[in-house]
């Protein structure tokens, strides 16, 4: 799978992280996921929220356009919110899902991923 890296200011910072900033206990929820490494090891998501984060990471790896990435952010926001409301999710997953939901909202509303100004 060819990996694409974002070109926005936030994505540039995330791409340069020397470590992953995951929610404790999660394999894919959080910035800086070393996706190719985790997939090659066959690592699985720990719960439905982590599975949604995995899909989000894959969408980011396969798409470089801001529009596609915002679509992936909205999808993760919706899946996370479903886990907040889910009757079968434990408290820890619900709390993490609430955090992910609001992080995705803030990220999109603040225009994270905006392109750097190009010199003319």
Automatic annotation (TrEMBL):
Record domain Phospholipase A2-like: where: 20-79
GO biological process, one term: phospholipid metabolic process
Superkingdom as given in the UniProt entry: Eukaryota
InterPro entries attached to this UniProt entry: Phospholipase_A2-like, PLipase_A2_dom_sf
GO molecular function, one term: structural molecule activity
Protein known as: Phospholipase A2-like domain-containing protein
Gene3D superfamilies named among the record's database cross-references: Phospholipase A2 domain (1.20.90.10)
């Amino acid at each position: 799978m060819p990996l694409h890296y974002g070109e926005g200011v936030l994505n540039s910072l995330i791409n340069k992280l020397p470590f992953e900033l995951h929610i404790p206990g999660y394999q894919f929820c959080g910035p800086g996921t070393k996706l190719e490494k985790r997939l090659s090891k066959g690592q699985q998501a720990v719960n439905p929220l982590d599975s949604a984060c995995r899909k989000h990471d894959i969408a980011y790896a396969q798409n470089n356009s801001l529009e596609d990435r915002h679509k992936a952010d909205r999808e993760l926001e919706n899946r996370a919110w479903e886990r907040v409301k889910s009757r079968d999710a434990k408290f820890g997953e619900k709390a993490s899902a609430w955090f992910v939901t609001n992080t995705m909202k803030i990220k999109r509303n603040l225009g994270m991923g905006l392109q750097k100004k190009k010199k003319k």
